[in-house]
Amino acid sequence: MEGSAMVRGKVLLSILVMVGFACDVLVEKSHAIWVNLPAAGTKCVYEEIHQNVVVLADYLVISDFESNLTAISVKVTSPFGNVLHHKENVTHGQFAFTTSEAGHHIACLSVDSNPGGGEVSVLIDWRTGIAAKDWESVAKKEKIQGVELELKKLEGYVEAIRNHVFYIKESGNENSE
């Protein structure tokens, strides 16, 4: 009995390691980036995102000045040009949406005011898919913790992998026609 339990344990561990690797490679993630905006002009970042994916992002202007008078404009658009978020003269903010179209979702930033002149640094924390899920709320709502919560996360990763494989399969079918 002990030998078979040990083998099952090793098999389970192997499966968890493979799922963890697959999650790291295939699943939507969180991307925090620094963007240095020129004093004049616009800089854009984008991400290729599938349809029906949750997107959350926070952005923050990092200023060298004690009084944070540096302000930016942020505009996020879908692959078909629909405006998903637009704010002007802000020092920080957040946007959230569920994609209705697959493709490049673009966030463009520009400087509105900068008393010090020069470049402006902006931190953008862009999260998609399973990385955008609020696991604290899930844990409270379902009254789970520890290993149960980690298994729930793995279940989410497996579902995301399955959806990604399905998306790849469908994309391949469209390209072969």
Give the CA-CA distance, first to last residue: 54 Å
Shape: globular
Derived from helix and strand composition plus strand pairing, the structural class reads alpha+beta
Helix content: 25-40%
Low-confidence stretches: 21-28
Rounded average pLDDT: 77
User: Count of helices?
Assistant: 3
Order of helices and strands: HEEEEEEEEHH
Oligomer: single chain
Radius of gyration: 21 Å
- Please summarize the sheet with the most strands: 4 strands, antiparallel
Q: Trace the largest sheet across and list its strands.
A: 1-8-3-6
What's the β-strand tally? Answer: 8
Beta-strand content = 35-45%
What features would you describe in this structure?
This protein has 177 residues and is of the alpha+beta class. It is built from 3 helices and 8 strands. Strand 4 and strand 5 form a beta hairpin. Helix 1 packs across helix 3. The radius of gyration is 21 Å and the shape is globular. The chain starts with a helix and ends with a helix.
